[in-house]
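**Protein fold record**
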Amino acid sequence: MNAETVPRISVIVPCHNIEGFLPACLVSLAAQTHESFEVICIDDGSTDATGRMLDDQAAADARFRVIHQGHQGPSAARNAGLGIARAQLISYVDGDDYVSSRYLEVLDAVMEATGADIACCGHVSASPDASATLDDWPSLAEDSLACISTIDAQESLAQIATEEINFAFWCKLFRRELVEAHPFPVGMVYEDIWNLGGVFADARTVATVPARLYCYVARHGSITRAKPAPMRTFWQFREAMERFEVTYAERLGLVHATDDASYCLHLVHRLCGQHTTLRSSECEDAARAQISEALHEELDAAYRLACLRGVSPLHPQMLRAMLLLNAPALHDRALVAYRQLTGA
């Protein structure tokens, strides 16, 4: 792609002190089979070799461009990347993750085939200690595009609520005007949750394909997984979820989001997540006990409401909630074991 050619897709990659993870990401993006794309890498005030590695990549491959800025967080980095992006289709890839060589090709083909405003694919999770390489990526069946599903904004929000569509901006391709209308909130920890509902609510149609083309690396040093995490992580998680609830209710024409079974299930799941976030947050024991008791009461009410709305108590998230309500110590041990096994 020469300098005069406007790319079809801009990939925005925020990076901060990820020198050990960045090579896999850059290699996977350079290997894309799509013929018209650019990669905008934002060095967000890195103090390790990240910035130099990005400059080296840009010098070797004209499809890569680099922005260096003081450390402002992933929201500011993504906003800066969009500010210089040239394409009308936008994808976000975190600099510590990596993608299949057909990631952009398939997402673009899905969007072309359906005329959707957003295209979504599946993902896999990996531990940062995993020995897997890009050569281990599962082959993509040639008939994978036959599995495309097209849904409207209301159904897409319901699928986000139940995490059939994951609550992140990665593993997706967006029409530019959708993300331009919803800048990322600078300083917000859970910026994806804060923004995703509004972006999907504005879409006319959303297309999904089950092919798992994105690898999410559960890096222990990331903002949301830091231990111990500052209490702002806990409160901003709740604030972001409340924003999604309002968007969900408005778009689905509900008096309240909990009138819908899908959201009730989502609420059960998220309250379990808040328990886990609180458990790893910096907090005085007395305050932690008080907040934990309030969460327990909220979860119990949400569980009962979900049952009332017809959610099966045998659903995995409902079983998790029941375990947390009745045996929280056993729940925490089981969660640790699950994360060790899956790298989630």
Remarks:
- Residues 226-342 form one domain.
- The chain has two domains: 9-217, 226-342.
